[in-house]
Amino acid sequence: MTAPGQAAADTSAEPLLEVRDLKVSFRTEDGTVRAVDGVSLSLAPGETLGIVGESGSGKSVTMLSVMRLITDPNARFEGEVRYKGRDLMQLNRDQIQGVRGAGISMIFQDPMTSLNPVYRVGWQIEEQLRAHQQLSKQAAHARAIELLAAVGIPHPAQRVDDYPHHFSGGMRQRVMIAMAISCNPDILIADEPTTALDVTIQAQILGLIRKLRDDFGTAIVLITHDMGVVADLADRIAVMYAGRIIEQGTRRDIFYDARHPYTWGLLGSIARLDRPKPRRLTTIPGLPPSLLRLPKGCAFGARCPHRFGLCDERPELLDKVGDGHLDACHLDLKQKEDLRETTIHPELIEEAK
Amino acid sequence: MTEASATPGPGPAAAAPAAAAGPATTPGPAAATGPAAGNGEVLLRVEHVTKYFPIRQGILLQREIARVHAVDDVSFELRAGETLGLVGESGCGKSTLARCIARLYPLTGGTVVFEGRDISRLTRRQLRPVRRDLQLVFQDPYASLNPRKRVGTVIADPLHIHNWGTRGQIKRRVAELLELVGLSPEHVNRYPHEFSGGQRQRIGVARALALHPRLIIADEPVSALDVSIRAQVINLLDDLQDELNLTYIFIAHDLGVVRHVSDRIAVMYLGKIVEVSPAEELYQRPLHPYAEALLSAVPIPDPDLSEQRTQVVLEGDVPSPVAPPSGCRFHTRCRYATEICSTQEPELIEHGNQGHLAACHHPLNFTRAQS
Q: Mean pLDDT over residues A103-121, rounded?
């Protein structure tokens, strides 16, 4: 464990992965869905980046596009994804196959459906090893057992011959992680890795991800809707809303100095155990906008309690102070400081009166 | 953890950082005064309710080869106006218990007394009037509404089934219900797919409220919703309770949500209730090691507090309910377990404060709470 507040990653280094102005849209019967609308991100070696947002905010589509896993013929991509000096968006199928696994690998939300039910888990891990590395059958088998042991599965030598249905949800997620780290990737993308799991199992899996990061120095992109998960694990956090990043900063920036009203709303609407119980939960009124018809101005405008004239223009994601903390909101810094606490905890202010 | 529990007074595990974080003016745990709400009459009494599902084998002669012990000897009382939170991990039997109470399943054993009447052996026909007063809200707002029916029909269905009023009265009642749950009465002719998840859950709530029930069993009503929408639905349920004097059994795995809505909380593990406590007190002073571990596993959305605390991480998985462990069912994963835990089953009894029960041979925070 690192000292409190100190980022484990070396952020001054050349970024390992850089996404520049990524746009992903899908043609549908009803019109064009702009799932990702100009996202730029970077990830330093060994860094953990949290991407937070609600369903439909584009967080998964962004990372699936990075992996080039979206094969829908109706999808259109724009922008650049630079990894080790190459633009992943320009690679052909064989080239991208070389990046997946050994360079970037991914684990998914639902461990129940991500494993093939008719093959033994050992076989599935070995298949991956042999596809990416030149290993003999015996060597792959031995390595599979080693990997299962590394992710904390008891009796790996026996379990390697079991089928996925013999494993519980948490154990299956461990198998998924074993597969993802099998080729020692530089980057591990974890898409809601614990959403389908119970809290006690979630704690186990997050502990495992942290251990792997500390042992192997893998850079991690952690996609989640749970602010609690990123509070513990992420060095930097990007908050997404309606296909764009609306705030980005270190984890301390987001939790203690949030500068976007949507982030305030997210922080306020969690029923927290570490605070006295509020009389009512803070809510964000209304619904996210339809991705078919994004408003011209700020996408959060219609739900924002602090909306004003300027919000009819789309705010850019800018670093206004020069401290690396970016936000896309027209309010000035002073206003934000004044409004933040009252928006997150309206009751605290009521009590003070 | 050990450090925290050595200090006198409240506040182990999850509670310790809370004390540090909360504003200094915060009054002590409200729970110390005992259950706040629900001083009315006993609305529901669940006595030794047991539900086993048989596992059968064979084609012609289906022999029962084993049983899933889904709910095993569960008892509790619920007073009118109260909210009981039911928490536990998947497979602990909380949904099965809810369905047993609503008599959607026949019971294997035990009795359910609702409004002073034993409903556990009633026939379907006899159950009908009971169902007016006891309604359910389900987890998945996508699966629990018939996609081919208009919203107005969905909400009016229970009214028709119970021969409630004339067509005009029903129409007015549906409009009233839509308004009550924060939807526009103009939406009656729309289909469920035209609504978002949060709005659908509101429709589910409107349907449950149609017949003026007294008890609502909400089975994970907000788990499928996004955080910002979740808060809206919770606040709605809160308001409706005040307005209509409802009694809730609120099932959820999210301990934050449960704390927010509940007066009392029951923690389930492998088909048994292992702890019952006034809501706030459970978070300040859990008695059962499982409750402690459950609380400690909840991520704290605050980087500093998150780093300061020491998590109790449970090893392994929940054992199979087909052959639950002997003695205390939690002993296989409990870090305080001793000899007696594997041989003798602990009873659910009061430890220290009134109304705070736990089934444990070595309850935590107990001797200190007394002194």
A: 87
Question: Letter for the amino acid at A37?
Answer: D
- Give A247's pLDDT tier (boundaries 50, 70, 90): very high
| CA A20 to chain CA centroid, nearest Å | 17
The residue range of the domain holding B321 is: 1-13+37-81+89-115+266-371
- The per-type count for chain B, helices as H runs and strands as E runs, is 14, 12
Q: Which residues contact B228 (CB under 8 A, 6 or more apart)?
A: A54, A265, A266, A269, A283, A284
Q: What is the pLDDT of residue A134?
A: 83
pLDDT tens-digit series, residues A177-234: 999 988 889 999 999 998 878 888 888 889 999 998 999 899 999 999 889 899 989 9
Of B14, B255, B260, nearest to A281 by CB-CB distance is B260
Mean pLDDT of A238-264: 95
Nearest CA in chain A to B254: A199
Give the alpha-carbon dihedral of A158, A202, A109, A51, to 10 degrees.
Answer: -140
Strands (E), B58-178: 63-79, 83-87, 109-114, 117-118, 134-137
Q: Domain containing B44 — which CATH number?
A: 3.40.50.300
Q: Which domains does chain A have, with CATH numbers?
A: 1-103+183-353 (3.40.50.300)
Q: What is the mean pLDDT of chain A?
A: 88
d(CA A272, CA A136): 51
In a domain, B98, yes or no: yes
Report which DSSP code applies to A133. Answer: S
What number is the ipTM of this complex? 0.82
pLDDT at B353: 80
Q: Which residues pair with B291 in a beta bridge?
A: none
The crossing angle, in degrees rounded to 10, of helices A169-180 and A121-132 is 10
Contacts made by residues B90-93, CB under 8 angstroms, sequence distance 24+: B90/A169, B90/A198, B90/B253, B91/B270, B91/B318, B91/B321, B92/B268, B92/B269, B92/B270, B92/B271, B92/B318, B93/B51, B93/B268, B93/B270, B93/B271, B93/B272, B93/B321
CA distance A161 to chain B (A): 20
Q: Hey, what amino acid is at B333?
A: R
Tokens of B102: 């609503």
> Computed over its alpha carbons, how large is the radius of gyration of chain A?
21
pLDDT at B147 over 70: yes
Asked if B226 and A54 come within 8 Å (Cβ–Cβ), the reply is yes
Interface probe, candidates B227, B242, B265, B333, chain A, greatest A C-beta count within 10 A: B227
Q: pTM here?
A: 0.84
Gyration radius from chain B CA atoms? 22
Pair type for strands B272-278 and B357-358? antiparallel
Residue B9 lies in a domain: yes
The conformational region for residue B81 under phi > 0 = left, psi -120 to 50 = alpha, else beta, is: left
Q: What is the pLDDT of residue B356?
A: 93
Give Cα A6 distance to the centre of its chain: 20
Inside any domain, residue B73 = yes
Residue owning tokens 């309770």: B241
**Chain A residues near residue B231 by CB distance under 8 angstroms:** 269, 271, 281-284
Instruction: Supply the pLDDT for residue B367.
Output: 61
Q: Taking CB atoms and an 8 Å limit, are B303 and A251 in contact across chains?
A: yes
Domain count, chain B: 1
CA distances from B234 to A137, A287, B181, B195, B230 (A): 55, 16, 11, 18, 6
- What is residue A252's predicted lDDT score, i.e. its pLDDT? 94
